[in-house]
Each structure stands twice: as structure tokens, then as C-alpha cells.
Amino acid sequence: AGMNGTAISDFACVIFNVSFMNCTWHVGRTATEDTQYFLYWGPLKNENVTECQNYIKDACGRHIGCRFQNVTIKNNIPYFLVNGSRSGQSIHISGYIIVEKLTPPLNVTVNCTEASRRCSIWWQPPRTSHVENMSCFKYEIVIENK
Fold first, then answer.
1. N or C: which end of the chain has fewer CB within 10 A?
2. How confident is the model at residue 94, as a pLDDT?
3. Distance between CA atoms of residues 84 and 34, nearest Å
């Protein structure tokens, strides 16, 4: 995308509390103050692509991110498109990162037997917005002797 240095960089999204997502980016290296960016996104490239409803802005009023509510991405790779009004070119973003901050595990159960001096601990995996495969999760357990 030859956008004369106005192309965005470091596009990344963070999902938290299962349904909120913030996506942010850095404005282009040579983007002037009147350069503006518009984010469109959808589940697939040509399907219901909608514009961001809630932009995050920098001091110049340029859009540098978007806040989403009620996000579900499960199992498909969302399509993101940002265009800059200065050169009017669209850039399809392929090198983005989506990070999900997980909710704590639910219903933690501890079962200890005095005789064998063993304990079993189990829990329900977290609710998520975009990771389906439960083998992707890893928890650390800290056991304190009270």
C-alpha cells in the first residue's frame, strides 16, 4: 500500500469482559494533521462491513482507534479496513493482532482427602469472545498453606 507515509501501523485489538473490544493504531509517519482515518470491519470481506461507531481520537482529532460493544468473533477471522481521507486509498489490514483478556475461571472446586494427602482442583473455563478451543487456555495455580 503506497500511501506516501500516511498508512497506519501497529493495528491491534484487545477484547475484555467478553464483549468489549478496543482496536488502536498509529497514524502514518508523514500524516498531516488534516489526515483522517476511517475503520470498517465485518465478519468477512464482502459481508456486512460497517464503519466504526465510536472512534478514539488523538489531540488533532484524528481517529486512532475504535471502541466496540457486543463483539463476537468466534471462529472467523474478521476483516478490517482502514482508509485515510488524505490520499483516499484503502488499506486492508492483514497483520493485526487480537488479544483477549480472559475472565477468571468459574466454580473453582477443591477436593482434598486426608488419608492420601492429595487434593484435586478443577474449574470451569472462561467465557470468551473469540477463542473456541479450550485447550488454548493455561492457568497458574498458587497454593498457599494457611
1. C
2. 65
3. 10
Instruction: For residue 47, give the DSSP letter.
Output: B
Start-end of H helices in 67-109: none
Q: Which amino acid is at 34?
A: D
Residue 82's domain spans which residues? 9-100
- Does residue 22 lie within any of the structural domains? yes
List the single range of 26-30, 47-51, 129-133 with lowest mean pLDDT.
129-133
What average pLDDT does range 37-57 have in this prediction? 87
Residue 117 Rama label (left phi>0; alpha psi -120 to 50; beta): left
Cα–Cα distance list, 40 to 73, 104, 116, 144 (Å): 15, 31, 59, 48
Rounded to two decimals, the pTM is 0.71
Radius of gyration over every alpha carbon of the chain, rounded to an integer in angstroms: 21
Taking phi over 0 as left and psi of -120 to 50 as alpha, with beta for the rest, 28 belongs to beta
CATH code, domain with 85: 2.60.40.10
